[in-house]
Write a structure and sequence with these properties.
Layout (H helix, E strand, L loop, with lengths): L14 H4 L20 E9 L2 E7 L11 E4 L4 H20 L15 H4 L7 H22 L5 H14 L6 E6 L24 H4 L1 E5 L17 E6 L9 H11 L1 E5 L2 H8 L3 E2 L3 E5 L1 E5 L7 E5 L6 E2 H8 L9 E2 L2 E5 L15 H8 L3 E5 L5 H15 L6 H16 L7 E4 L11
Parallel strand pairs: 1-4, 4-5, 6-7, 6-9, 8-13, 9-14, 14-15
Antiparallel strand pairs: 1-2, 2-3, 10-11, 11-12, 15-16
């Protein structure tokens, strides 16, 4: 006698190969969720001085198509040289720009360094911004230049996607730290604006590429964030710095550190339970007897805090169940969004991500102190509210400083991971 058996499918291992997952919407509270990315670009070393690139839009991939990929014809050395050149042009054309009179004599001022609001000189700002957009397009064109079919197809897909009408959430998972927000495309549509050429204006952009970070238990949801101000006391009264400190005091539980010993002692404990770690200090490259100086920051004393030092002090806690280190880090010091001079050297931001930081944001060039404090105040004001992610805020600030201040310097801030980072507050 035949009978129908009840069948319940508990697991379907082939599902990912036969169907595409529908887009996920973030719930209103956003707790415990990560929005799907719109575009993932991976740049890897494939062999000595050679590079391989892939890109895909998760919602558009089907089982019958390969991920877009190509071997680049440009060398790694040439890419790094082009990135360094672009950063130098931004520094020299903006931060160090000096107006001249009819006789070619400088008036001794540095307008881009002396004020964050460039409205009185908007014509000059726009002219220089157009030049920088051309340089950003030039670097991206060189990166993707080549004659092979796979490279031509890849270039067409990536440029069309980056230049499309939609604003995307993009991760560049890259072995090379490039100034992605400062790269540019020719925007689609007839109503073209120079600001909309830059990737950092068009899209939310993060750079990844660090090793897998340790899995940590979720932190306690609290009514006020826990923050720290790690600073050089000589900078406490510079520009808008007092207002930034007041903001942190009023909107969070704040710890102020001015000496490296205090900071390193805190870093050496298993539990470093801060939501935001803000550095307002000096960042510079330190000569070390090799052709490649390394990046370090310095508080009020002379001790250099670099990637190897923080890894030595905190590396022993990696993987321990009772350890915690998950701050969002704002490194508001010169060059801190930039990698070390050579790709094989460690980078401070990358080291903090490796230890478990939820994201690191910092400038890629020598940044004027006036602008740095304006940017810090605007970013922290939004981030501490807990309603927006770091990726949303970084893009919003690029647009804010462009629209209100005619100032492109917000594009120099680079987000290492953290596109989804946000403060989770008790409602």
């Amino acid at each position: 006698m035949s009978m129908d058996l009840a069948i319940e499918i508990r697991q379907n291992p082939s599902f990912d190969f036969t169907a595409l997952l529908p887009p996920r919407d973030r719930p209103q509270d956003g707790v415990g969720t990560r929005e799907p990315l719109d575009l993932s670009v991976t740049l890897r070393r494939s062999q000595q001085d050679r590079l391989h690139i892939t890109a895909f839009r998760p919602g558009e991939r089907s089982p019958r198509t390969r991920i877009h990929n190509a071997h680049l014809e440009i060398t790694e050395t040439a890419v790094l040289r082009g990135a360094a050149r672009l950063r130098s042009i931004w520094r020299d054309r903006l931060v160090r720009h000096q107006p001249t009179d009819a006789d070619g004599m400088s008036d001794g001022s540095f307008p881009f360094a002396e004020s964050a609001d460039l409205t009185p000189m908007s014509a000059l700002s726009r002219r220089l911004t157009e030049e920088l957009a051309d340089e950003g397009r030039y670097l991206l064109d060189n990166l993707l230049d080549g004659s092979s079919d796979e490279l031509r197809y890849f270039r067409s897909f990536l440029i069309d996607t980056l230049a499309g009408e939609a604003s995307l959430r993009i991760t560049f998972d890259s072995d090379l730290y490039l100034p992605w927000p400062m790269l540019a495309v020719e925007p689609a549509g007839s109503d073209k604006d120079v600001w909309d050429s830059f990737l950092g204006h068009r899209h939310q952009v993060e750079q990844t590429g660090s090793p897998y970070v340790p899995v940590q238990a979720p932190g306690t949801t609290r009514s006020l964030p826990v923050t720290s101000l790690n600073t050089d006391s000589t900078l406490e009264m510079v520009a808008k710095a007092p207002e930034v400190r007041k903001l942190l005091e009023e909107r969070s539980h704040l710890t102020v550190r001015t000496e490296s010993e205090t900071f390193l002692d805190a870093l050496s404990g298993a539990v470093f339970d801060e939501d935001v770690m803000y550095f307002w200090c000096h960042g510079h490259f330190v000569e070390n007897g090799s052709p490649h100086p390394h990046l370090a920051v310095r508080l009020s004393d002379e001790r250099q805090i670099d990637a190897d030092l923080v890894l030595r002090l905190r590396g022993r806690f990696l993987g321990l169940d009772d350890a915690r280190f998950r701050p969002f880090v704002l490194l508001n010091a010169c060059h801190t969004g930039q990698a070390a001079a050579a790709p094989e050297l460690e980078h401070l931001g990358k080291a903090l991500i490796r230890l478990g930081a939820d994201g690191v944001l910092g400038p890629q060039i020598e940044i004027p102190q006036v602008f740095a404090t304006e940017y810090a105040y605007a970013f922290l004001d939004l981030y501490l509210a807990g309603g927006s992610t770091a990726g949303e805020i970084a893009q919003a600030l690029v647009r804010h400083f462009a629209r209100e201040f005619h100032n492109p310097l917000a594009l120099t801030y680079s987000l290492h991971c953290g596109i989804d980072s946000r403060v989770e507050l008790a409602r």
